[in-house]
Design a protein that fits this description.
single chain; GMP Synthetase, Chain A, domain 3; five-stranded parallel β-sheet; 15 helices
């Protein structure tokens, strides 16, 4: 997509899991941002539309020989620079400061104290203090000449540093994550006040750019769209329908791993709302046979991904393009979208699970967007509200909510439990307050007593999280009576479950899904 004539902020990605959050926050301000990996950053040349540079965090340590630095060509641009975490340490070392491995690792919330005022921290502090999110072990122990200390924490003496003359700033914490209070103010001060960037970006404009990009790429070819009925694939289908009309063929595959009655809802919604060729394929037997005795979560995803593609190939002979609802979190957890040293978390079935000899050319128009941005884009496309407000549901479906072996019996038990949980959320007007909620069936049987008789049945785990982007999340704090009601209804209604647990783990350290 051509964004050449927009004021922009360049983000050099040093491999942080949350680099894209920086771009997302800046887009929310109305400014276009572009993520470039370290190697490509060496080729950046003077451009009047580049208004500032942000150096991301990363998994490496600046104290080791394999660390990444700040390319000299970036300094020649003479643009304002903001270093975040690893980027903060890069700035300090580049100009003659010292960085060392700290005896005390700083991870999680920290209280930051203001020592001096500067343009970067305007309106950031409340009563000279604030709560920020840290994730580092290296610390700046001496700042370079020309820099001054702006703020500190108990473990980081130089938590914010600034060279106001050159407009270089470094922050040891992560202002891009929701855990940092007023973090967006730091980014806003940098891009608007320090960089003087014009607000020229919006999802409304992005919609037109994506549609035009699809037209130019696809031309007169047909496209097959992998439709699940969820938010992401639905928005992709609406985009393609706008771009190529009748040349779009949507395929909905019932894997047997869907939620209760889901296949009926999808067929009803899309035959009515999207006037496109919808092909329904019940492949549940195939998926169950392929997943028989498969217990490793990575292998589950790969098996599902390969079978999906095989079925699409059978249904779409002579069709060149395959469209998917792949989002940025899918990519960043499966591999580094920018080529930086981001650590891989898990293979998403539509990313890491795809075969190497893929016969299709992929069309993934949402791959740099987050879920909340996709919902906003869907609103611009007039996607029905009922679809846009659905909780995320993973491509591998219930397969990754049943750790260990999968069976038709387990799927049936889990479908019933999950249906009850979601139904109670809707009845209590909680569904739309929660980012994602689901039931899982743990590979654990326990002894129970029901009707004076001994039972030996499975354990059901409930999970519900709040989030803005899916990259970080916190568990929803239900009232005790609600959890009791759900637990009682599941145990009394679902044969095969005699114990219900609630997961109170945030992301990180866990992921939202179990596998």
């Amino acid at each position: 997509m051509n964004q050449d004539n927009l004021d922009k902020i360049i983000i050099i990605d040093y491999g942080s899991q949350v680099t894209q959050l920086i771009a997302r926050k800046i887009r929310e301000i109305g400014i276009y941002s572009e993520i470039i990996n370290f190697d490509k950053s060496k080729k950046i040349k003077e451009n009047k539309f580049i208004k500032g540079i942000i150096l991301s965090g990363g998994p490496l340590t600046i104290t080791k020989s394999n660390s990444l630095n700040l390319p000299d060509n970036i300094l020649k641009l003479k643009k304002p620079i903001l270093g975040i975490c690893y980027g903060h340490q890069i700035l300090a070392k580049k100009f003659g400061g010292s960085v060392k491995i700290s005896k005390t690792r700083e991870f999680g919330f920290a209280q930051i104290k203001s020592d001096k005022r500067c343009p970067l921290t305007k309106n950031f502090f409340n009563n000279e203090k604030n709560s920020v999110w840290m994730s580092h072990q290296d610390i700046v122990t001496r700042i370079p000449s020309g820099f001054k200390k702006i703020a500190s924490t108990q473990n980081s003496k130089f938590a914010i540093i600034a060279n106001e003359k050159k407009k270089f700033y470094g922050v040891q914490f992560h202002p891009e994550v929701t855990h940092t209070k007023n973090g967006k103010i730091i980014l806003k001060n940098f891009v608007l006040n320090i960089c003087q960037t014009k607000r020229m970006w919006s999802l409304r404009k992005q919609k037109d750019l994506i549609i035009n990009d699809i037209k130019k790429r696809v031309k007169n070819e047909k496209v097959i769209c992998a439709l699940s009925g969820g938010v992401d694939s639905s928005v992709v289908a609406f985009l393609l329908n706008k771009a190529i009309g009748k040349k779009l063929k949507c395929v909905f595959i019932n894997t047997g791993l869907l939620r209760k009655n889901e296949e009926k809802e999808v067929i009803k919604n899309f035959k009515k709302k999207l006037k496109s060729n919808l092909i329904y394929l019940d492949a549940s037997k195939l998926f169950f046979n392929k997943l028989k005795n498969v217990t490793d979560p990575e292998l589950k995803r790969k098996v599902i991904g390969k079978l999906f593609i095989k079925l699409f190939e059978n249904k779409a002979k002579k069709i060149k393009f395959l469209a998917q609802g792949t989002l940025y979190p899918d990519l960043i957890e499966s591999r580094s979208v920018t080529g930086s040293p981001t650590s891989k978390i898990k293979s998403h079935h539509n990313v890491g699970g795809l075969p190497k000899n893929l016969k299709f050319t992929l069309v993934e128009p949402l791959q740099t967007l987050f879920k909340d941005e996709v919902r906003k884009l869907g609103k611009e496309l007039l996607v029905p509200k009922a679809i846009l407000q659905r909780h995320p549901f993973p491509g591998p479906g219930l397969a990754i909510r049943i750790p260990g072996k999968i069976s038709k019996y387990k799927i049936k038990v889990l479908q019933e439990a999950d249906y009850i949980f979601i139904d109670e959320l809707k009845k209590s007007n909680l569904y739309h307050k929660i980012w994602q909620a689901y039931a899982a069936l743990l590979p654990l049987k326990t002894v129970g007593v029901m009707g004076d008789s001994r039972t030996y049945e499975y354990t059901c785990m409930l999970r519900a999280v709040t989030s803005q982007d899916g990259m970080t999340a916190d568990f929803y704090n239900f009232d005790k009576t609600f959890i009791q009601k759900v637990s009682n209804r599941i145990i009394n209604s679902v044969n095969g479950i005699n114990r219900v647990l609630y997961d109170v783990t945030s992301k990180p350290p866990s992921t939202i899904e179990l596998e």
